[in-house]
Amino acid sequence: MADTPISAEPARSGLSPRKRRQISLGVQYAVFVAVLVAVAMLADWPKIAENFFNGPVAAGMFPTLFTVALKNTLIFTLAGYAIGFVLGLVLALMRLSSVAPYRVVALVYIEIFRGLPALIIFLLLGFGLPIAFPGFSLPGDVYGTVALALGLVAAAYMAESFRAGIQAVPKGQMEAARSLGMKPTRAMISIILPQAIRIVIPPLTNELILLFKDSSLVFTLGVTAATTELTKFGSDTTIDQANSTPLIVAGATYLLITIPLGIVVRRLEARQGRKR
């Protein structure tokens, strides 16, 4: 019986996965460049420059942009952050407490203030409190109201960050402290919390960025020229000048703060990742 000839294996055809990926990326880059070129050719650059990058209009915003608007924005943000930090830490400890009512109160607070838009909190404090308690006003007027509104919202998010940080500390730390005769409260303050705070620095810094942007909601309270912040100042100047340049300048001022903070957050997260 004659041997049956073995058919040769068909030669592989087509491109390698690496080559296909390179071609795919090349096509994507080409499409992206084509879109940019089309936009650049179709845009009315003189009108864009006149309405969004008007030098004289931008120059007229200084120095009030920094001496009033940015200053107030920073005051609102830092005051709200301080309230949120302290209240958030208390809520986190309540969430981890062995006392059931504490846990319930903290959980209800966190769920409510994380679920409500910050705008509603501003409106309730700005207009609800005077109605519910006639004659009552918070210390600092607008500053106090904004700081409290931002702090109440921030506390709900910071509480969860603190709770996660505390739970991330090895349980052996508390057991070792107790074995040395330290009371639970003392051990929590001296040993657990310092470690937990270091762990949650990145999310806490990110919350600072969010508060910095949320401070723009102060416009709902009817601010004056002395208590205006970046967004309100940019919006009012835009209306006065019938030009959109002030909004661009206000946005750039926000980025002047948020971009460096964002870089800090990424570096802190990378550093913690290396330690793990």
UniProtKB/TrEMBL annotation:
The lineage of its organism: Bacteria, Bacillati, Actinomycetota, Actinomycetes, Streptosporangiales. Keywords: Amino-acid transport, Cell membrane, Membrane, Transmembrane, Transmembrane helix, Transport. This is Amino acid ABC transporter permease. The chain crosses the membrane at residues 23-43, 74-94, 115-136, 142-166, 187-205, 247-268. It comes from Nonomuraea turkmeniaca. Residues 70-265 form the ABC transmembrane type-1 domain. It comes from the Bacteria. One of its GO terms (cellular component) is ATP-binding cassette (ABC) transporter complex. NCBIfam families: HEQRo_perm_3TM. It is a multi-pass membrane protein. The keyword Transcription does not apply. GO terms for biological process: amino acid transport. Belongs to the binding-protein-dependent transport system permease family. HisMQ subfamily.
